[in-house]
Amino acid sequence: MHKILVVDDETRIRDVIKEYAEFEGNLVTEACDGMEAVNICKTQDFDVIVMDVMMPKLDGFSACKEIKKFKDIPVLMLSARGEEYDKLFGFEIGIDDYVVKPFSPKELMARINVIISRNLSKEPAAVNNSTLKFAGLEVDIAGRNVYVDGEKAELTPKEYELLFYLVKNKNLALSRNKLLSDVWGYDFTGDDRTVDTHIKMLRNSIGKYRDFIVTLRGVGYKFQFAES
Q1: To 10 degrees, what angle do helices 60-67 and 34-43 make?
Q2: Measured between alpha carbons, how far apart are the two ends of the chain, in Å?
Q3: Strands 97-100 and 75-79
Q4: HSE (side-chain half, CA atoms, 13 Å) at 106
Q5: Does 102 sit behind a cis peptide bond, omega within 30 degrees of 0 on the bond before it?
Q6: For 104, phi and psi rounded to 5 degrees?
């Protein structure tokens, strides 16, 4: 059984999600606005938050940023707005997925289950070294931190997962579909821009070592580093 917080000012939306989530054996807590969601998260823990964007008192994006200041809970954002800007902004503040209304409850639950599964097993079963070093770029696996020339880089959880996957498969060509499947854990068919957007964000986060992430035209990307 997993704990899910559903945040939406529409009772009908909350009821639908709750019905499907409880049918699968999950425990659902509801909030009708972002402010209530923030206050609930101060005293309770959840495996995932399903958060609407447009809500009274405090919108979903603002609520997400507030919650992530004190707890690292994965967030699936719901919105009637499907503009690329809104999706990019959501990913930049650290959300795990973005679903546009109207949505299929079954697909929504599939995405929720993937997020929960991925966060229950973020790290591989065995890792030979706790820190991977590539010149001045260091990836601290155990601590889930990244350092650029000794300075800690601020990465979103998804940026870290993407970077770790790239370095784990160093010098191997990885298609966008492969990255979507293994990093996001879901078939985002036709949504290759999700990968491109996160690659761009990741390159900005690692600064001078951005060129380690090589674009393979028509294919995807690879992390390229030649041992000295």
Answers
A1: 20
A2: 49
A3: parallel
A4: 0
A5: yes
A6: -85, 120
pTM: 0.61
pLDDT by position in tens, the chain (length 228): 799 999 999 999 999 999 999 999 999 999 999 999 999 999 999 999 999 999 988 999 999 999 988 888 999 999 887 677 788 888 888 888 889 888 999 999 999 998 888 776 554 444 445 788 898 999 987 778 899 999 999 888 888 889 998 998 888 899 888 888 788 776 554 466 778 888 999 999 999 999 999 999 888 999 998 765
Q: Which amino acid is at 69?
A: K
Q: Which residue has the tokens 């998804």?
A: 158
Cα 78 to chain centroid, rounded: 14
